[in-house]
Amino acid sequence: MDNYDTEQAGSSHWHLGPIIDALRTSRESTHNIRHQGRVRELPSRTVLRQVIEGVSAALFPTHYGRPDLNDESIDYFVGDTLNVALDRLVEQVRRALRFTPGMEDIAEAELAERARAITRRFAASLPEIRALLVSDVQAALAGDPAASSVAEIMLCYPGTIAVLYHRLAHCLHRLGAPFLARLAADIAHTLTGIDIHPAAQIGASFFIDHGTGVVIGETAIIGKHVRLYQAVTLGARRFPLDATGALVKGAPRHPIVEDDVVIYAGATILGRITVGAGSTIGGNVWLTQSVAPGSNVTQAKMCND
Amino acid sequence: MDNYDTEQAGSSHWHLGPIIDALRTSRESTHNIRHQGRVRELPSRTVLRQVIEGVSAALFPTHYGRPDLNDESIDYFVGDTLNVALDRLVEQVRRALRFTPGMEDIAEAELAERARAITRRFAASLPEIRALLVSDVQAALAGDPAASSVAEIMLCYPGTIAVLYHRLAHCLHRLGAPFLARLAADIAHTLTGIDIHPAAQIGASFFIDHGTGVVIGETAIIGKHVRLYQAVTLGARRFPLDATGALVKGAPRHPIVEDDVVIYAGATILGRITVGAGSTIGGNVWLTQSVAPGSNVTQAKMCND
Amino acid sequence: MDNYDTEQAGSSHWHLGPIIDALRTSRESTHNIRHQGRVRELPSRTVLRQVIEGVSAALFPTHYGRPDLNDESIDYFVGDTLNVALDRLVEQVRRALRFTPGMEDIAEAELAERARAITRRFAASLPEIRALLVSDVQAALAGDPAASSVAEIMLCYPGTIAVLYHRLAHCLHRLGAPFLARLAADIAHTLTGIDIHPAAQIGASFFIDHGTGVVIGETAIIGKHVRLYQAVTLGARRFPLDATGALVKGAPRHPIVEDDVVIYAGATILGRITVGAGSTIGGNVWLTQSVAPGSNVTQAKMCND
Amino acid sequence: MDNYDTEQAGSSHWHLGPIIDALRTSRESTHNIRHQGRVRELPSRTVLRQVIEGVSAALFPTHYGRPDLNDESIDYFVGDTLNVALDRLVEQVRRALRFTPGMEDIAEAELAERARAITRRFAASLPEIRALLVSDVQAALAGDPAASSVAEIMLCYPGTIAVLYHRLAHCLHRLGAPFLARLAADIAHTLTGIDIHPAAQIGASFFIDHGTGVVIGETAIIGKHVRLYQAVTLGARRFPLDATGALVKGAPRHPIVEDDVVIYAGATILGRITVGAGSTIGGNVWLTQSVAPGSNVTQAKMCND
Amino acid sequence: MDNYDTEQAGSSHWHLGPIIDALRTSRESTHNIRHQGRVRELPSRTVLRQVIEGVSAALFPTHYGRPDLNDESIDYFVGDTLNVALDRLVEQVRRALRFTPGMEDIAEAELAERARAITRRFAASLPEIRALLVSDVQAALAGDPAASSVAEIMLCYPGTIAVLYHRLAHCLHRLGAPFLARLAADIAHTLTGIDIHPAAQIGASFFIDHGTGVVIGETAIIGKHVRLYQAVTLGARRFPLDATGALVKGAPRHPIVEDDVVIYAGATILGRITVGAGSTIGGNVWLTQSVAPGSNVTQAKMCND
Amino acid sequence: MDNYDTEQAGSSHWHLGPIIDALRTSRESTHNIRHQGRVRELPSRTVLRQVIEGVSAALFPTHYGRPDLNDESIDYFVGDTLNVALDRLVEQVRRALRFTPGMEDIAEAELAERARAITRRFAASLPEIRALLVSDVQAALAGDPAASSVAEIMLCYPGTIAVLYHRLAHCLHRLGAPFLARLAADIAHTLTGIDIHPAAQIGASFFIDHGTGVVIGETAIIGKHVRLYQAVTLGARRFPLDATGALVKGAPRHPIVEDDVVIYAGATILGRITVGAGSTIGGNVWLTQSVAPGSNVTQAKMCND
């Protein structure tokens, strides 16, 4: 940095021309987001977040919508908020579908109709999703001695937000919009530090306390009344390779956690194993084998193996 | 998904009517935020964040306020910023108080006066809080070899933000606004990945480095000159139940950490134990018993037990 | 809180005068951000984030810019977006430089010219940085069985964002703007839960999966084709002190990770040790000694020591 | 301006102290907006504009609301939009009432109830107001050879906006909120250049073309099917004074314009005169005496007087 | 207003149900913006204003774009700004076309292609429009003794804005988007108080000083080097009716003003008359007959007739 | 428009390249805002409007600032608001000065110091300006039978806003920032339809009612207690030319209006004439000769001349 003086003092030119040329060359050589000459528009993280906030407001209008609604006004609010959210969602579904393997080439009209159908089914699932979320909130209230009210659970627990996003993302995944579901899950990850793959199947009355660092993998299956603490991993132990040595995508490789299990902070549970109903897994435990129902696994025990 | 074609092609109707009916039914059967026919307005996360940012700007005007203040203008800025923040805070305190057990039924005028009193005391506590925060920043500068200036500590350390929010939230908690304090703590958790319950008592010169995944429980007590690293848990070992099997809320169940303790990354310290003054707790240590002052606990030692 | 009634009922005065006086006294006694009578303006977190988002949009216009660009319009977008970002960056570099030890006193004109030179070199480095980022995305696609497309890697992986910010921050660090680089790193930490010091040296094809809680220290050196999972720490074991007992800042104290290493979730690797090329470090492993190339370290093995 | 150099070069101090003192002195000596020790909050121009835009959207949802509403969604939109607007309006009415002569001292609870009653009656008047506005739009379509569609009348005619604001402002005026009504009228004046006092009484099927510079005074009465062009004044000729020489406020002093009258650009009609039904008043005419029904007044005629 | 007390004190219900029912009934009986079961989306005033501001910035980048552009960056700015504006414009043209008589029923694809063609031709016309606007600015500088610089003309003269909007609106009108052109003209009217119908034909070097209240009708034709002052009307004298008594729309009915004419403030010129080249029309003149080239018409003369 | 089909169907390319080339050519041939290779940044309309709103809030904090200020908080608000406004203003003054004839070439440092000096003097003038504005408000209250309160005058009269902007703009003009003063005047013109040149000299207790279309020229001089109505022009009769036939800029050419004059709507007063103290000028009067003090001029009288 000796030669500051020899550069064009006082200039605010950035020599953009060659940089832009080099960036163009780089783009052209390495990736290509066009498909058959057509730009595929990506879904928007900002809009999807607005959609989920809108749906959340429709599901829980006084908690996530407006605090001053009354019997007269609440259904108008729910109806209008939901309508706006769904009108926005259908466009994001449409964009995301184009990136689904096998849908790169279907006609625009069919793509649009599929997006509408998915959105309509998503809307129809909302009452059922709400019931699950109510069970989750009740589980939190029952499970945390520091929790003093439903309002506190709804407003002050990242686990509540993470599960809310997951239940909506899982619905989108199940209805055939996996890319958009992943985007929703990543928004939740950013907001909460909790990373749940949208394909994971999670039963009612689910509660994550504190939550930062929790990871739940793609093929995990979780029963009812399960409680997790921060930094719990439900992960894969190894990744199956195919004959060519490439990763096999989508194969079952994450744990099955049965009903009424509690998993304390920092526990790491890996592979397609089963944690039997009613078990307790202690903090920091490293578990790679199935355990019978009613087991009580602690780190000390693991160290003794 | 075979029957796309049989749905109403081209329609953007979402069949809102039955969904809204079902959501209303779900709301009515499961929870009720009205109290004696009156809506209880929830505090606003957005407004509370603005309040804390305003207070932060008043406490540290050149770091968190505006960079171009000078001797002539700084007190006007502090005064106006603080006044706006307090005017907003009093409304949030008022809303939150209504959710405090025992205050559901007190008269509006008394509620408002309590909110004003709490806000006035909060304001009066700010110089003292500032002194604590200055001690925290100095501890960070002394404790991290990568830190090069006060400005870097103020702007680039999530621990600084987490402790700033905690000291303000703890003050609100202590003055009788526990729900609002929890909301402040959760905002900090979202921003930093550090989860400190507002009831936790923390002495001067406190420093958290990196910080992601730190959890400090409701009844934890931390002395002066304590330093924590990422993913440290000061948690509960078990939750006391009452005669009916329900959780006892608020009982002491988290560690006491005395002065001059250092706790390295990933250590998990559980239960109402005491970490004696001047001790060092190594990374990933799992600690559920008290240790004497001056102890040096490492993972190896724990495994050997 | 018995005496609510004796306070001035109905007043919204906050007794600001004495609070503001006390805050002024506190400011004057404890820190001073003026240098020789001149305010040193701090860089702006908000503006720096806009700068990095602008640069990201210029690097990957269809993913991080606007989804509807075509061959005709893309270079105009890149050029204008980059120009705006660089015009903003140069001011932030200038502000940050003033906080660099040794630059407190240099003349404004020289400071401005240094800021321009750094910004110009930063701009010139962008094509090279883009090439590295492309290698990172390809590594992610190859390394995660749940990843289905480049678009998903770009939009839904916090690791992608963390590495993007790191490569830009590292460039700023290397060009002589360490404070601004730290601020960029902390923005990424907030967004992703991944904390990489901008001085850390990281080779091509780097992939972090899930990522929450990852910490990579200031003097860490990472080779090519390295893969990390959540909660991995590449930290310091102890901090060297100088003759006076003060921390020595900047000394090598973090690991060297050679090419083709995989480090699973929760592993903690501390000190200036070397993880030999092609090694695998298992989940939750605690490692404080160098391991030879091709090692396969698991927790069990560590416990057996 | 010769002595620039003798001022403090390089300073950005504005010598605020004495200016602020002088402004305080000026405030204290000249006006006082407190009433009996209580600040009277002024209504907000910004919020009132939002209220009127919300009401307009509820009245004409596809023109002033959202363009993509359908049979399923439109009533939810209308209901929610109206509810939000009325919730905001009631607070503005409450503030404005405090400035009504005779209401400076009534109790807060009574003031609030009056505001609610006015707002409720305003809401109940909306269908009737809508019918008037529809008649106005039809009159515009019939009366302007350049108009090609209802949509053009709704979106591109300042007269439409002015009349919309007037009909809402007049309703507020009539219900007992004259100050707020004036504020609404002034917003319309700013938007359109058309200045209609909210007390003016205007019949159905009213059309103002071009409109800039039109002034319609407080006690004007206008029949049905009246058409005005730009710069028409319906003003007062002289202001009655009381015995003390002070202005008598509110006395009838503006024209009565009967049904089916056309008044061309720039005509000035002053005093409590009557323009008989079916008359035509030519451009630039200066008229201070009543004219019989069916009159055709032109400038030439006036000059001949 | 005697019975405030008998209403439901304390309620904030607005009795929305019957109001919404009545508004629905009113909508259904009076107008219908659907065409063959399809909603016709209206163009957006807000978006069109953004489009025109974007085009203005592309035409005059340093005056209406960004003040810090240089030789290196200016074309990137122009290209990107123009591209964004045109991408937005094409959607507004498409919406507006659907309201064009005769286009209610054409297929979506044809409508979209027409919109693209119009937008493309509009873009191609911009250099020519810029040349006209430059001539207008030069005419202003030459014609106003108070004007001191081009910058002042560009930034501080409503006439400049009105003519800028008109030249763009007239181009849209000429290319077949008359409704959108009217909307652009009305935006200019709101901003400037100057009301120019987009169909009016106006030659180069046109200058309007002060401008408030100027009205230029649909079929007016104005030559080169014409100067107008505030409150000038170029209007219609009477509206031709067809055999049924309905207005004939679009017939020539406004003045022709030849080259080098000056028309002073408040002059009213009505009907399909011709103001000969080089004439001067005095302030407040009322003119309904053609005048020969070189005429000097003053009010005094008119009064003497 | 027959050949839609022959254009590239489905393309959204706008053929930007040749358009951008043509615009560049047009820019280069017709105007040049660089001065000696340096871009002269234009002042910002948006920022100047914010400055004036800030100054207005500081002058009348409860009317134009925040409605909830009290004795404790008001001076903090005034001080901070004023400081922010002045910090912004100084940059706008600096930019505008560069366009002042004779200042194109002065050094940056001198320009900056002149801008600071002007801003400091502007600040020091504010108490005096406030006193004038208070006299104006009192004149309005005394002069309009429809006005019911000071609050109504402050919030609902465009004349109040126009005079507020004028008094600030005139101060800037007088202190040597004529271009910025013009920009402020044009903002007021846009907001109110009232066009007052900032060089016009206007005495205390000035009131404009309704106001749309009022024009007051550069060299007009207005005494105390003068009242104007809408569409009054105080203009120039003819423009003096120099020996070369070019306009002489700045020569006295607008009326002098002495104390206690009332001028009714639409009156046009042209040339360097004097309207004697206490005169009344009737509506629509056309006046080009001086009138003695106490005159009562009406249109009828003028026609009789």
From TrEMBL, chains A, B, C, D, E, F:
Its EC number is 2.3.1.30. Keywords: Acyltransferase, Amino-acid biosynthesis, Transferase. This is serine O-acetyltransferase. InterPro entries: Hexapep, LbH_SAT, Ser_AcTrfase_N_sf, Serine_acetyltransferase, Trimer_LpxA-like_sf. The keyword Ribosomal protein does not apply. Belongs to the transferase hexapeptide repeat family. It comes from Massilia litorea. It comes from the Bacteria.
